[in-house]
Fold this sequence. Notes:
Layout: E1 25-27, H1 30-41, E2 45-49, H2 58-62, E3 66-70, E4 88-93, H3 100-106, E5 113-116, E6 130-134, E7 145-148, H4 167-175, H5 177-191, H6 201-207, H7 212-230, E8 248-252, H8 259-264, H9 276-279, H10 285-292, E9 293-297, H11 304-317
Parallel strand pairs: 2-3, 2-4, 4-5, 5-6
Antiparallel strand pairs: 1-7, 6-7, 8-9
Helix pairs in contact: 4-5, 7-11
InterPro entries: PyrdxlP-dep_Trfase
Amino acid sequence: MSNREIGGYFELESRLEFEYYPDFIRLNSGRNCLEYILRARNYKKIYVPAYLCPSILEPVRKLKIEFEFYPINIHLEPLEIRALENDEAYLIINYFGLKGNFIRSLSKIVKNLIVDNSLAFFEQAIPNVDTFYSARKFFGVPDGAYLSTNCFLKEELPTETSWNRCEHLVRRLENGPIDGYPSFLDNEKYLCGQEIKSMSNFTYRLLAGINYRSVKIRRNQNFQYLHLKLRAKNRLSIIDTELDGPMIYPLLVENGDFRSELIKQKIFVANYWPSFLVENKQDSIEYDFSKNLLALPVDQRYGLLDMDKICSVLNSLI
């Protein structure tokens, strides 16, 4: 008989219905998905785009794997594709959910491809191509990631615990984003250097209760609305607008110094990634993206009235 407790006080209410990726490996973070792949495949070297979140290099450095940066172009695609040895891997990032079609084409000509869908949760994995996702970039969860692979580690993984790292989620819900931001930073700091663990039960329950169809519809509508209104101002050529739940609307402007003005209007835009302003030359693509790309929110919390506010504020600034 099961040892499950019956009765007593109620836990946090959550609908346990279905996950979006029930057949994938559940882990605690996207960077640990990459570590899982590198260890399982026993890669000795990895090529990574120069424009990436620095945290993705954490497992590479931890495992002391050789890595080499490759440049990208204004279309968020590699400038060139090189041939790989059998023990080398090639990491491609699906930037903001915009590069799905390109990556599918790339998968036909590049072996040992690793797809980072941390910024593209709803992009379906390509069969037999290692692919990973980060949940907290799309949903209100403290951690959690999914990994699609056919190569497995033999070791048993410990399970993550996240009940004590939800303060930023609750504070934002009740008091707004500014009040919860310090706790958010604490949670981000915790995730640095963590060993590979299975997804926490708390995060799993939250992810199993999301109406994913509704989320995708709202994100698609918001993205298309912003693209209709702002594409004439956008230096980034967004050719593929047949998207499925994009992360943000990336607006590349001539000068992104007015980011602080958006924040004053309570429009919070993420900065991908500020470290490039120090590490790269001012005439580089990476510097341009870091300084001048405005990541406009299109997620499920907002509707077209919110998109109108964003457009109104931008029209007064650009």
